[in-house]
Amino acid sequence: MAPPPAVPEADHQDDDDRIPEGTGVDLRVAVRRLKARNTAPGPDGLPGKAWVLASEALGPRLEGLLSACLERGQFPLRWKTGKLVLIRKPGRPADSPSAYRPVVLLDEVGKLFERVIANRLAEHLAGTGPDLAEHQFGFRKRRSTVDAIMRMRALTTGDAVARGGGCFGGVSRHRQRLQLHALELH
């Protein structure tokens, strides 16, 4: 699990264009999320608990690997390769294709890298911008489904509805995200 060889330095006119290296903080935040979940291992067979236990010993090497991936703008193909598992839905006939829910199991190290990228994107959007829309609840820190429901409730009992407008919400079953939109009808 040695980090790939260093990428030759490109001539940068502005240091702001450089991608900051992966830090211990990035990795610790991603590993902390692994601790909270008990998921099945991907094709490599390493469960998240193994990465949690090994993170202290492997931390510096893993940081180097993730930093090299960020610097090169590469997401290793192996981390994108999954194992398809079909989970039977209760109460459905076994011979029906709709009786099964497909789940793709991915390697945990790829999930760690995804979390590092997602956290960096969220920080960038919140700090540097452009920030996400006010009514966007997915991918937002300190925003929950309860907040989305409260906003929906406020919209349905508010001025827009009283003036003949309306509102609708959409929930993605895959990620359970709620997005709200108010409609003004004239």
> What characterizes the major β-sheet?
2 strands, antiparallel
Tell me the strand percentage band.
5-15%
What would you call the structural class? alpha+beta
Strand arrangement within the widest β-sheet reads 1-2
Q: Give the end-to-end Cα distance, rounded to a whole number of Å.
A: 61 Å
- Work out the number of β strands: 4
Tell the overall outline: flat
| Quaternary structure | single chain
Query: Which stretches are low in confidence, meaning pLDDT under 50 for 5 or more residues running?
Result: 7-13, 172-186
| Rg over alpha carbons | 21 Å
The overall average pLDDT, rounded, is 75
- Residues in helices, as a percent range: 40-55%
Return the string of H and E elements.
HHHEEHHHEE
Number of helices: 6
Keywords:
186 residues, alpha+beta, two-stranded antiparallel ribbon, 4 strands, 41% helix
Descriptive notes:
This protein has 186 residues and is α+β, with helices and mostly antiparallel strands. The protein is 41% helix and 14% strand. The protein has helices at residues 24-35, 48-72, 77-80, 108-127, 145-156, 159-162, and strands spanning 83-88, 100-105, 166-172, 177-183. The strands form two sheets. The chain has a two-stranded antiparallel sheet. A two-stranded antiparallel ribbon has the order 3-4. Helix 1 runs antiparallel to helix 2.
